[in-house]
Amino acid sequence: MAVCACIVTVFVVDVPAAVQHAQTVAEEWKYEYPVLVFCVTLSVFIAGVLAFLPTTIPELVMAFVLGFNEGYAIAYVGKIIGATACFFLGRTVLRAWLLERFGQNRVLVAFSGAINTQPYRTACLLRIAYIPFPLKNYGVAMAGMAPLPFFAALLPVELLDTYVQVSIGSSAKDLQTLFSGEYTPEQEGAIRLQLMAVGAEVVVLALALAYLARLAHKFLHDVDEGSSAPALLL
Fold it and tell me: For the whole model, what pTM was predicted?
């Protein structure tokens, strides 16, 4: 039913016009009520993290609509607050519920032993690896990771990862401005230079993160192959 509704919406609703209208309204609110927009967006982003939702699309959208500075501030602060809340909820009030539903997760069982023997290395590699964001927060809490390794990995890794996502979103906005001609002749050179610089930075960081992610997955595979952990987290 939901799929049918989405198909009908695509054909009936003028999606580009709706997106453009939403972007215009968001930009108007951003300048008229900056503090309100910041607080509401941050609250919704944190709620999404707590609700097991992915963060990539919201990061791209925030950067596109709000710009790099505000988008980055909201995304990074929201990730830190949301991940912290998930971690401590996973260690306390939600632990029994999470264990009941995810206690047999193969990845969690595999690295539960490595968390105790190599906590900092495991925390960093799991934070870098291409695994769902909730698994990096709720999952490591279930597996028994201590707070210090968790935050030692969370703060620097998300600093770089958030930069990549937000840079892509804000660059898309600059490209839209460039193609639409909504700039003065003096701004054209600066926009092109900024796009080239950001593009180079994003490529370098993305390649570095991809390489580290490969190492992280290799590490997880090795841990999984040689794991003596039980088939169920306790």
Answer: 0.73
